[in-house]
């Protein structure tokens, strides 16, 4: 009995010591989560963010981490769905993760933001552009490394007014927070400039046949279509418009700027206009980082790779400055200017960037893009 008891005591003690050592090692890590769609129709945007965050984390850890501690990175899926946003947020909170890059999509971000903010989790989204995420919310822990739709919309409208110069425009959207928000911003700017907006209408995301709206576009006699939403619907609109003989130029926000749109639209994608973050990958200052992407066969020039890298940098620099304390990091970000791959960034009281550069690109049938001249 005594020998058995002693053996059990030694084993238990060793187990506790092992747990303590493991805990001590684990405590050296700083937990980050990237909340991205790993399921659903918008996984490509999650892949873009994952490439950016993973590259940044690899670079930071290879350089010794943050104040000697390594970043431990976890991916959490929200499928870019509003109903999944709170579920993902609760997973982050329950995992005791204090820092998030994401969520990717505006609807999921808006649904999850109150949980993150109430639980004191620092969130920096590299891609959610809806003003409703931050406007009037008084959130202390929510930030972006991308501009808002009310910055992107005017940039698109300015191009339409000054370069495209259509006679009659249709503005469509997918009835969702992001798509309808950006479409409304474009419509409002066009109407201010006295551009004839003949149609403002929503379509159902996920449908496979948009013949009815294309017939409406033909009947309205429009020569330009702006669509607020994502690439699956834009691809179908382009292809089906071509098939039905509707020859109009189409434009969309960064949500349509995805190589997958080529697979859906085929050759009819040629000439699609899209507002995107500036091509930060072409900045000579980012040459070493671009090389790091390419060494892992990742694309640094997509819509969100470098805004995601910048989001990771921002959090890391915040921790470096004030320690691994989300409250202090949020306090710091609100008053700091941080040098990132997208340039120096600073935030206003509600966590929005002081400035952001959206540019207009022309999409090509080989999946490449170029600055649009007209």
UniProtKB/TrEMBL annotation:
Which superkingdom does the taxonomy of this entry point to?
Bacteria
Q: List UniProt keywords, sorted A-Z.
A: Amino-acid transport, Signal, Transport
**Matches recorded under Pfam families:** Peripla_BP_6
Q: Per the UniProt record, which residue ranges are transmembrane?
A: none
Keyword Transport recorded: yes
Q: Which InterPro entries match?
A: Leu-bd (IPR028081), Leu_Ile_Val-bd (IPR000709), Peripla_BP_I (IPR028082)
Cleaved signal peptide residues: 1-27
Ranges where the Leucine-binding protein domain occurs: 30-367
Q: Which family does it belong to?
A: Belongs to the leucine-binding protein family.
What NCBIfam families does this protein's entry cite? Answer: PRK15404.1 (NF011933)
Q: What is the protein name stated in its UniProt record?
A: Branched-chain amino acid ABC transporter substrate-binding protein
What is the organism of origin for this protein?
Comamonas avium
């Amino acid at each position: 009995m005594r020998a058995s008891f002693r053996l059990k005591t030694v084993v238990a003690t060793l187990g506790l010591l092992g747990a303590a050592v493991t805990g001590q090692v684990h405590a050296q890590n700083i937990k980050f989560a990237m909340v991205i769609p790993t399921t659903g129709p918008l996984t490509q945007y999650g892949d873009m963010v994952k490439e950016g965050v993973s590259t940044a984390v690899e670079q930071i850890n290879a350089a010794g981490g943050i104040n000697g501690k390594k970043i431990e990175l976890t991916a959490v899926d929200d499928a870019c769905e509003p109903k999944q946003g709170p579920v993902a947020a609760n997973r982050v909170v329950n995992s005791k993760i204090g820092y998030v890059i994401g969520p990717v999509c505006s609807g999921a971000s808006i649904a999850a933001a109150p949980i993150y903010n109430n639980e004191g989790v620092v969130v920096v989204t590299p891609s959610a552009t809806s003003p409703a995420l931050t406007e009037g919310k008084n959130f202390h822990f929510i930030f972006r490394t991308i501009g808002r739709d009310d910055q992107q919309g005017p940039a698109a409208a300015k191009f339409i007014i000054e370069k495209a110069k259509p006679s009659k425009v249709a503005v469509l959207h997918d009835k969702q927070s992001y798509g309808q928000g950006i479409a409304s911003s474009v419509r409002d700017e066009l109407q201010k400039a006295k551009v004839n907006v003949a149609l403002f209408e929503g379509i159902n995301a996920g449908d496979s046949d948009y013949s009815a709206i294309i017939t409406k576009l033909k009947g309205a006699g429009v020569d330009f279509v702006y669509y607020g939403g994502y690439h699956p619907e834009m691809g179908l609109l382009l292809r089906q418009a071509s098939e039905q003989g509707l020859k109009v130029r189409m434009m969309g926000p960064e949500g349509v700027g995805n190589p997958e749109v080529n697979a859906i639209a085929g050759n009819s994608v040629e000439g699609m206009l899209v507002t995107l973050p500036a091509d930060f990958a072409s900045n000579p200052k980012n040459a070493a980082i671009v090389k790091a992407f390419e060494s892992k066969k990742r694309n640094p020039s997509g819509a969100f790779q470098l805004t995601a890298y910048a989001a990771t940098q921002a959090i890391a620099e915040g921790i470096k400055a004030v320690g691994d304390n989300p409250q202090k990091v949020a306090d710091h970000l609100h008053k700091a200017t941080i040098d990132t791959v997208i340039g120096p960034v600073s935030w206003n009281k509600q966590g929005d960037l002081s400035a952001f550069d959206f540019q207009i690109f022309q999409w090509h049938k080989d999946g490449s893009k170029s600055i649009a001249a007209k």
